């Protein structure tokens, strides 16, 4: 108890009383308030009607108040407020006589302010504006309790507890939102991978095409140089004769390689002098077209 309003017969019997540190005593004379006794030893002559009415602690005290209320979006919550208060030494007589139950009085004011403030806020806003709610409670208590000799040191909203089902639903909503963000990020990553893979394949095919084109151009240039060199060194031969001979030689070399390979698959190609002549004609026409295009 903050106040102990008792008649201390032992102190009155010996006409002295001891007041502990951080405590004041209330002295009465013939049942009327006389003075506030500071910590120490005091003379209390009972023969002239002096007596000790009780003690009042000046220490900082804390009261935790749990208040159930409803938010603007119709969610019931338990708001836990922590009130730190103390009696003022210069108003000890008011604190001793004006209130019979200080804690109940403070609790009533806290209920009033919280139930007036929280219903104006949505649940999310209530969590975000805890300091505003605490400031409103502190201002109201400061105005009310100063008249009774008490000082409100600090007011804290230490917790806002929704119903268990509401908390579970909020967690599920939050989890779903995070999963949606994760799915979007994963899809975006896969999209980037596919784009990069397509760009790589396109670049690879482009470079492969460039390589094949250069290879064929080199073959054409090599055959042309061979034909021209052979025609110069062997008089009486034409370019057609030289090209036919080169193609026939490469044809038989290819056939030899196919037959010598141990793991080669069956390959069906036309064979015979007529087939070789047709192949030579096709290659010669291709070389002539390539040469014309090059020029």
Automatic annotation (TrEMBL):
One GO CC term on file: plasma membrane
Organism in which the protein naturally occurs: Gossypium australe
Entries under Gene3D superfamilies matching the protein: Band 7 domain (3.30.479.30)
Stretches of the chain forming a coiled coil according to its record: 166-199
Main location: membrane
Protein name per Swiss-Prot or TrEMBL: Hypersensitive-induced response protein 1-like
Family matches, as PANTHER family: HYPERSENSITIVE-INDUCED RESPONSE PROTEIN 1-LIKE, STOMATIN-LIKE PROTEIN 2, MITOCHONDRIAL
Source taxonomy: Eukaryota, Viridiplantae, Streptophyta, Embryophyta, Tracheophyta
Locations listed in the record: Cell membrane
Keyword annotations from UniProtKB, A to Z: Coiled coil, Lipoprotein, Myristate
Entries under InterPro entries matching the protein: Band7/mec-2_domain (IPR050710), Band_7 (IPR001107), Band_7/SPFH_dom_sf (IPR036013)
Pfam families hit by this protein: Band_7
Residues annotated as domain Band: 14-174
Membrane topology of the entry: Lipid-anchor
